[in-house]
Amino acid sequence: MKMKKRATALLLALAMVLALTACGDTGGGGDGSAVYRTLYSTEVETMNYLYTTSSGNLEIPANVVDTLVEYDCYGVVQPSLAESWEHNEDYTQWTFHIREGVKWVDKDGNEVADVTAQDWVDAAHYILDAANDSSSEYNFEVAQVTNAAAYYAYTAYLLELETATDGTDENGNPVKLNADGEVIEEVPEVSVEDIGVKATDTYTLVYTLDAPCSYFLSMLCWAAFMPVNGEFLAQCGDSFGTSAETLLYCGPFILSTFEPQVQRVMTKNPTYWDIDNVHIDTIQMTYNAEASTLATQMYLDGSIDNATISADLLSSLLETHSDQIHYSRPDVSYSYWYLFNFDPNFDEEYEPDNWRIAVNNESFRLSIVHGLDRVNALQAKDFADPESLLSNTITPLGAASASQDYAYYGGLEKYTNGDTFDPDLALEYKETAMEELAAEGCTFPVIVYYPYNPNETNADSMAQLVEQQLENLLGTDYIDVVIQQGNESFLSTVRRAGNYGFTLCNWGADYSDASAYVVDPFAEDSSYSFIYESDDPETQSFYQEYLDLVETGLATTDDIEARYEAFAQAECVLLDHGFAIPIHTNTREYSFSKLNPLEGSYASFGFSTLRYKYQHILEKSMGMEEFEQAYQTWLDEREAALAEAAQ
Question: Disulfide: which of 98, 102, 264, 577 matches 285 by Cβ 3.0-4.6 Å?
Fold first, then answer.
C-alpha cells in the first residue's frame, strides 16, 4: 500500500500541518483572536432554512444552527444535538435523545429558550404546510415519514380551495373549480398531529416511517431536519430568516452582523455546547460584485485569507506562488453527465423532429458515447491534470458503499475501471447509425443542439472543446454540434423545459444510498432526459428494463448487497445503451487559503462541507506538495476511520 511506502513523508506532512495549525489560533485579529476574512459576490435570497434548499442560501444557517448529527473530517457520523439514537429492527422508527442544556440565543448572545425535541416537530409542521411552499417537503417524501406527503397534499388542497369558484361537473353535480376551470379533486383530511414526527417527552424525538430506511441518519444534515423554536417562528412570521435579528442560534457561530451587499460577520457562539471544537473567533465576509476578479490580488495584498484562482491566472501563479497554492479536497456531492433529450422542445431551426429520430437510435447514441474524449473536454476545468477529474459512473465513486464501493456492483466495474472513449468503435457505430437512420428518413448532418449553462464555470470552453473534438472525429457529414449559451435561468428554461438535444447536467444527493443518483433523475416524472416520453419501441424496452431493476432495488430493504446489485444493474442499462455519459463530479478549485481544506466536516451529501467548525486558521496557505502529502495522510486515516465505524 502507498501508506507503507510513504510513511515517512506522510508523518512529516502531518507534522507540518499540525505546526501550521498551532500557529493559526493567534492569527488574523489584532487582539490575538482568530479572524478569517473572505469575499462573496452573490447575496442570499433568504436565510429561512425551513424554506430554501439552495446551498448559497444555507451557508449561514449551516453554521449557526446545529442538526441532530454531524460528520467529522473523515465523513464519520457523530452525535450533535442528539446525544444518542436507536432504531427498531426494520428501520421504520428512529428515536433521538436530545442533548440537554443547549440554548437558543439571539444575535447578541442572550439566551432565549432551551433546545428541545419539539423544535424538530415545529420545523416539520412548517415545512409540510403547503402554504409555506418549502422546497424541503421532498425530503420528507423520500424518507417516507408517515403522513408527511398526505398532510402536504391536504394543505395544498385547502390552499387551492381559497381561490376556487363554484361549478358543476359533467353530470351536473356541484364542484369546486381552480383558476384553469378544472375540477378540484377532494383530498382526505389529515391532521398535523398525524405526521410521524413526535416529541414523546421534552428531550425525546421520534420519526416514524412508512418503509424501512437504513440510511435515514445520512439525511439529517440538511435543511429539512434542522430545528426551529416554534414560538419564535410564529412571532417572526414571514420575516423569519430575513435578518440577523429574525434568526435564533444554537450552532457554533452567531450571525452578529448582516448588511446585505455590504458584509456578513459570524462570531463564535459563547454558549455553544462543543465550543472546544470551534477554533475561529470571527468570520468576516465582505461583499464585492467583482470578487472573482479581485480576490487573488487582495489575498496577495494581505487583505483577505482566501481566494479561488481562475484558470487564466493559475499557470503564472503556480510559477511564482506554488508554495501557497493547493486544490480543494475532492468533492463528490454532485455528479455531472452528458444527457440526450428524448422529448426535444427547441426551435425548428435546430430540427427537433430529425433529432427525435436520431436520438432513439442506439447506434447514434453510442457513436457519441465512444466518440467523446472526456479528458480533452475536462481541460476546460483543469488544464494541469484533467484526467484526475474523470468520473465514469452516474453514481460517483465514493458516494455509497456496502462491502465494497457501489461503483463495483452489478457490472459497473467495467466502467469504473475503464474508459468509454474509443475512436474506432465510435466510427463503427457511426457507419451503422447512418445506414439505419437513412432508412428511417433521418437527414444528415444531424444537428446536435447543445445549450450550455452560463452559471457553470468555463462551460463555454468545455462546450467548444466537445464541439470541435466530436466533429473532427465523427465528421461534419454526420453531425453538426451547435452550441449556444443558455440564459441565467438555465434549469427552468432549458433543462426542465426540454429545450436541448444534448447538454451537460448534474445531480446532487441528499443522502447516502445508491438510489439517490440512479432513481430520481431518470424517473417517469423527472425533468432529466425525458426517456419516458419516447414512443420508440426499442427505447421503451430498454427503459422498462431499467424501471424493473429500480423497482427491485427499492423493494429490497433488508439486504444492502442485493439492493446495490439491483441499482447498479439499472445504472448499467443506462450506460450500456447510451442514455447518459458520465464525465466528472464537483470540479476541484485551486486556491490560496489559510484554512486547512482537510479539517472541515466531510460528506458527499447535505451541507456539511459548508461548515467552519473544526477548522483552524493557518499562518500561511498550504502549497501543492504539502497538500498532496497531507491529503494522502487524510485518505489513509479516513479509510481506518470508516472501517472502525463500520464495526
Answer: 264
**Cβ proximity of 368 and 374 under 8 Å:** no
Backbone angles phi, psi at 336, to 5 degrees: -115, 135
Beta strand residue intervals within 149-213, DSSP E: 165-168, 174-177, 197-201, 204-208
pLDDT of residue 292: 85
Among all chains, which residue has been given the C-alpha cell 473536454? 377
Q: What does the alpha-carbon distance between residue 157 and residue 181 come to, in Å, rounded to a whole number? A: 15
So what's the pLDDT on residue 455? Answer: 83
- For 550, the 3-state DSSP assignment is helix
Helix axes 423-439, 362-371, angle to 10 degrees: 160
How far apart CA 366 and CA 362 sit, in angstroms, is: 6
Interval 489-529: pLDDT, tens:
898 899 999 999 999 999 888 888 889 899 989 999 888 88
Count of CB atoms situated within 10 Å of the CB of 644: 10
Question: With left for phi above 0 and alpha for psi between -120 and 50, is residue 172 left, alpha or beta?
Answer: left
Q: How far is 539 from 341, CA to CA, in rounded Å? A: 12
Closest CA relative to residue 627, chosen from 347, 372, 279, 324? 324
Three-class secondary structure of residue 205 per DSSP: strand
Q: What is the SS3 string spanning 493-548?
A: HHHCCCCCCEEEEEEECCCCCCHHHHCHHHCCCCCCCCHHHCCCHHHHHHHHHHHH
For residue 3, what pLDDT is reported? 31
pLDDT at res. 168: 86
Contact 413, 404 (CB under 8 A): no
Give the distance, in angstroms, between the CA of residue 163 and the centroid of all CA atoms in the same chain: 36
Query: What residue ranges of the chain have pLDDT lower than 50?
Result: 1-27
Amino acid at 400: A
Q: Cell numbers 391532521 label which residue?
A: 191
0.90 exceeded by pTM: no
Write out the H or E segment, with its range, that includes residue 480.
strand 479-485
Three-state secondary structure along 415-475?
HHCCCCCCHHHHHHHHHHHHHHHHHCCCCCCEEEEEEECCCCCCHHHHHHHHHHHHHHHHC
Query: Cα separation of 148 and 161, whole Å?
Result: 20
